[in-house]
Amino acid sequence: MKCRYSRCIFGGGDIEPGKEVEVSKGRYMHSECARYNATIKEIVRLYSESIDRTVVFSELQNVINKIVFDKKVDPDFLLFAIKKAILNKTKIRAPYGLYYLVNDKDMIDTWKRKKVQKIIKSVPLAEPKVPQDFKYTPASPKTLLTITEGL
Q1: 2 has which bridge partners?
Q2: How far apart, in whole angstroms, are the C-alpha atoms of residue 60 and residue 47?
Q3: Three-state secondary structure along the chain?
Q4: 4 pLDDT exceeds 90?
Q5: Quick check: 64 and 44 in contact, CB under 8 A?
Q6: CA 35 – CA 33 distance, rounded (Å)
Q7: Mean pLDDT taken over the chain
Q8: pTM to 2 decimal places
Q9: Quick one: 95 exposed, middle or buried, by C-beta within 10 A (0-12, 13-18, 19+)?
Q10: What tens digit of pLDDT does each residue of 12-23 get?
């Protein structure tokens, strides 16, 4: 089977039997390619509904593809940046304004903090292992004097 995503991130080659496969409208794709495809569709939908209803879709798609595939920006980060810009009511006058969003240092720092918090929440905290036969006995004053004499 070949990956049928036009911009396959694995080079458009055959899908290995051990890899995860997504089937979308009868097309086989790598699971990562399917995630990219769905995220980009969500970006286009969000941009056209919330930012500019009269956008030229070919221009928007071209800008998104350049950001995601040429500049190697994670599409989840681009989606996060657009959502944050909408919440902050940041003016984006044209699709080329997306370049400024992904290069904004505050946006990058916020994204990194969000990813770290997500990782911290997903890792379970290990309880300290204390041997069952452990008994605490305080040191005698005589032992403490011999320890402090060497200082």
Answers
A1: 14
A2: 9
A3: CECCCCCCCCCCCECCCCCCEEEECCEEEEHHHHHHHHHHHHHHHHHHHHHCCCCCHHHHHHHHHHHHHHCCCCHHHHHHHHHHHHHCCCCCCCHHHHHHHHHCHHHHHHHHHHHHHHHHHHCCCCCCCCCCCCCCCCCCHHHHHHHHHCC
A4: no
A5: yes
A6: 5
A7: 84
A8: 0.73
A9: buried
A10: 677 776 667 777
d(CA 82, CA 48): 11
Output the six-digit token pair for 85: 């810009």
Determine the Cα–Cα distance for residues 64 and 81; give it in Å rounded to an integer: 12
Query: Is 21 in contact with 30 (CB distance < 8 Å)?
Result: yes
Contacts of 15 (CB under 8 A, 6+ apart): 1, 2, 3, 21, 28, 29, 30
Task: Report the distance separating Cα 24 and Cα 45, nearest Å.
Answer: 18
Our CA angle for 17, 22, 25, nearest 5°, is 130
Amino acid making up residue 38: A
Residue showing tokens 């989606």: 79
23: phi then psi, degrees, rounded to nearest 5: -110, 120
